[in-house]
Structures are given as structure tokens and as C-alpha cells.
Amino acid sequence: MAVAMDRPSHQPFLPVTTNKSFAAKDSVMTFHIHLPATCALLRPWRPTDAPSLAKHADNPRIAENLRDGFPSPYHLEDAHRFIAMAVAEHGPPVPNAPSSALVLAIDVDGIAVGGVGITPLQDVYRRTAEIGYWLGEPFWGKGIATEAVSALVPVAFDRFDIVRLQAGIFVSNPASMRVLEKCGFVREAVHKNAVTKNGVVMDEVMYARLREE
Ligand SMILES: CC(C)(COP(=O)(O)OP(=O)(O)OC[C@H]1O[C@@H](n2cnc3c(N)ncnc32)[C@H](O)[C@@H]1OP(=O)(O)O)[C@@H](O)C(=O)NCCC(=O)NCCS
After folding, report:
1. How many angstroms separate the CA atoms of 94 and 49, rounded?
2. Residue nearest to atom 21 of ligand 1 (CA)
3. pLDDT class for 28, splitting at 50, 70, 90?
4. pLDDT tens-digit series, residues 134-186
5. Atom 44 of ligand 1 has which residue's CA nearest to it?
6. Nearest residue (CA) to ligand 1, atom 9
7. Is 133 a domain residue?
8. pTM to 2 decimal places
9. Could you give the number of structural domains in the chain?
10. Which atom of ligand 1 is the closest one to the Cα of 146?
11. What average pLDDT does the structure give for the chain?
């Protein structure tokens, strides 16, 4: 069944607003998606982004909603390490290697102020990918994450041989749930006590969108 048929009427799809200079499985290094409603841009990370990445990511209000792999505090060295990883992820494709992640900066006025990524899972989950995102706090509430996720969904289904795109949201994060609902994701399940973050055990809410037939 198409996901679009599952969505309640109060969870409208945003129109796909991509103006993408991208063809499926092209080099990510030339990848740009313009987000016209918010004037933001999705683009590859660059080494020169490290200071702005460290500045915006160094915020416990961001880290508390993300897995522990997201450093807190977030130092300049963490930013350099992350960007080196992101650049390597987007290197030339290796035949028969597992699909690389798609790891992009959210750029506002030429500055990287957040990140969004698609990570294919492995083994029996190999036709599922996770979507993750964060944004610097000064930019919250402007619709940027919603437009970024909305634009990236078709790219994820285009680029990867997946049938499912999912995100597990900590129950304490209603803003992120709202982003996914606005992007047509379906709230599928509550995984009780699935997460321990900053010493607190909490539920995780699973959202998913399926490839449309
Ligand atoms: C979650 C996050 C990415 C949202 O970014 P954003 O650009 O502010 O999101 P948008 O503006 O597109 O949409 C936010 C929506 O959440 C709503 N919202 C915000 N705070 C809320 C709250 N406490 N309760 C309910 N809804 C809330 C907003 O009103 C808006 O919905 P609306 O358009 O229907 O009014 C950003 O807050 C963030 O980076 N948080 C920390 C990291 C994080 O949580 N990442 C996601 C982990 S899965």
C-alpha cells in the first residue's frame, strides 16, 4: 500500500521542492538541493565547514535528542573528524561495497548550520535506511528541517535500493515527530524503554515511509 494512502488528513505532504543538480548514484560531491521555501541548501560537507559545524553542534539541546555518537560538548576536532568521514563516505564508489551513507550539510546563507543524512542498514535490514537530521538552534521553527527531509525522501528512494525509510525518535522530541509527520512518515510503534540517553530511560517512537508503488 502506498504510504500516501495511510496518512491522516492533518499530516499533509509538503510538495517536493527539490531543484536538484543530481542524478541517481552520481557523485555526491556535486550534489546540491535548493530548498526554495526556506532559502536553504543541502550540499556536501567541506573541510572549511568545521568552525561553523562545531559552533552550531556544540549545544546540549541538540545532542540530547541524538545518539551518543554525536559528541557533547562538540569540539573543533570533532567537526574535523566528522567532515573527514563525510568526505570519505562520498568518495568514488567501490564495486560490490555496501551502499555508502548520504551525509549532507544544511547550508543557510553559505554557512553549514546543520546536517541531514541517509544511512542504509545491513543484513536483513539492507532494504531499509535511516534518516537523521539536526539544525542549529537559531534556525529552529522556520520549516528548514521539514523542507530538508521532504526533499531528501525521494532522493533516498532514488539513490538506494530500499523499500523503507525510518527514524526512531526519542519520546521527548515532539518537534522531530512533527517534522516527520509533515513529511508523510507514519507513526508505527512505540518501543518501550528502548533508549537510555543522559542516564534517562525513555521510549522511542518509530516513524517510517515506504517506497511508493
Ligand atoms: C528537530 C529539529 C531538526 C526541527 O527543526 P526545525 O527546522 O525547527 O523544524 P521545522 O520548523 O521544520 O518544524 C518543526 C515543527 O515542530 C513543531 N514543534 C516545535 N516544538 C514543538 C513542541 N515542543 N511540541 C510540539 N511541536 C513542536 C513546530 O511547531 C513545527 O511544526 P508546525 O510547522 O506544524 O508548526 C530541530 O529542533 C533540531 O535540530 N533538534 C535537535 C536535534 C534533533 O532532534 N534531531 C532529530 C533527531 S531524530
Report:
1. 26
2. 175
3. low
4. 999 999 999 999 999 999 999 999 999 999 999 999 999 999 999 999 999 99
5. 65
6. 145
7. yes
8. 0.88
9. 1
10. 12
11. 87
Q: Has residue 5 got a pLDDT over 90?
A: no
Q: Is residue 130 part of a domain?
A: yes
Listed in sequence order, the residues at least 6 apart from 102 whose beta carbon sits closer than 8 Å to its beta carbon are: 28, 90, 117, 118, 152, 155, 156, 159, 160
- Which domain range does residue 134 map to? 3-162
Taking CA atoms only, the protein residue closest to ligand 1 atom 35 is: 141
Closest atom of ligand 1 to CA, residue 142: 11
CA distance 54 to 50: 6
* Residue 201 placed within a domain: no
Residue 61 lies in a domain: yes
CATH number at 101 reads 3.40.630.30
Which residues are near ligand 1 (CB < 6 Å)?
62, 65-66, 132-135, 140-146, 167, 169, 173-176, 178-179
- CA nearest neighbour of 137 among 40, 63, 197: 63
Q: Cβ distance 208 to 165 under 8 Å?
A: yes
